[in-house]
# Entry
Amino acid sequence: MKYKVIFAFLCMAQFCVAREIRVHEGQSIQAAVDQAQPGDRVMVESGRYHEAGRPCPSQPSVSCAVVVTSDNITLAGVPEDGRPVLIENPGGQDAGIEVASPRSAAVECVNNPAARVHGSVIASFTVNGFNGSGIRLVCVDDWLIAFNSANNNAEYGIFPVKSGFGRIHHNVATGANDTGVYVGQSHDVRADHNLASGNVSGFEIENSTNVRMDHNEAFGNTGGILVFILPGRAVLTGLNNLVDHNSVHDNNRDNTCLNPADEVCLVPPGSGILVVAGTGTVIEHNDVLGNETFGVAVSDFCTPFQVPAAFCSADFLGFDPLPENTRVVANVAKGNGTNSQFPGVPGADLFWTGLGSGNCWQGNRADTEFPSPLPSCKQ
# Structure
């Protein structure tokens, strides 16, 4: 009898009342999301969708096409007959899909459970032409972004921020004037088997911990993969991030950042994998080919950002500006550094500014390195 009572309670709470809500072309995706309860799946059929939009929960001053504010909602496209499930910006909308709690606009949500959303799935959409981001998650836990295509969104393609325990896989991101696939101020995230091309930055890990970025391809961007820390954020930690088994090649696109004050404007064309500050970053088993400025570069924060020595400290910046215990191991870095686009910086397959402690290189196949020899890793 006890187990029957428990089963009945679970049915009433969520599991046995979960529904599938179908959306046909010409109907509103947002209207279906508004009907959904925790555990429901909103399944959107092939077609072109122009949503009326509503205020973005994380930033009500701008509009999002589709917003998800409840826990445990699956929002998935159902492409058929070669036709995508296409969400387009009808004009004036900042993001295509945003998952966030409305509370996140009023309070700092990093450590506030009441301002976080749980259990979101966004899958199999094409999201094009928004003024900010294609797909954006703000303070979301236990989430998945998979099999989407985000194209020609002005700033970011896929953008989870202040989020944890998530995965981004088998997505395509093109044409962003900041980053194709971005993970910022987040933790315990895996981004794998994605493709980023034609962006300023293909992939970024910013102010994050325990992020693995693996088996991705970055080509035709200004920079392929960036791992760094920036000041003035709610999270000022960059720790134990892993970049492995990626193909990073021919990232020589001009930098088309929109705001000259943005840090991404400093990324020189021809950047392969760039590590700036952070502790315990591992770069291993990547193929890094044909990037004109450098293949794999390890830098302190102050050199590229031209911070005077008097202010280059954790006391001033809020984080250690030097890279510590970075390991660059077993990469193939060839044909890089042939035409450096960073003034005063020599091009090389492997590059280090020389600052920071415990940084080492081992077992890489590279033709050029600066300085030479680079410190080897102790066995």
Notes: Residues 324 and 357 are 5 Å apart (CA to CA). The first strand starts at residue 20 and ends at 23. Residues 1-15 have pLDDT under 50 and may be disordered.
